[in-house]
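Can anyone check this?
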Amino acid sequence: MLERWVTELESEVERLTAALEVVSRYCALHVGDAPHADEKAARSPSHHRLLVLGPGCRRCDTLYDLVQRALLAGGYRNVSVERVKDLDGIAGFGPVLTPALVMDGTVIVAGRIPSGHDLQGILERHLGPPNPPEA
């Protein structure tokens, strides 16, 4: 029991340390900059880009895997998923808690791992209804 409690506390310390580092890096950047403003214009409107923000902790890995499975299950073929582990890259989105999910430059989930059902709802709201799987 004590070992499980210590493991949970270590995980929480890891998450908070990463969050503080992101805030620190964000403050060090120019606050008035819009780092991803021209990114939307360069992308095709039918293609979406998802980013999983996080320094590479267990929770970030879990969110990345969950997003991959949800996209596959929903048949979303016009979506790319990338990892952003670089703290300067994460800080470019503002002081967000990790893990975070960014869609087309907008943070849509931060500081938590949504359930599979919640993630499907989030994807449907932002991407539209799922595509039927190809035979």
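Reply from J.R.: I decoded it. The domain at 2-127 is CATH 3.40.30.10 (Glutaredoxin).
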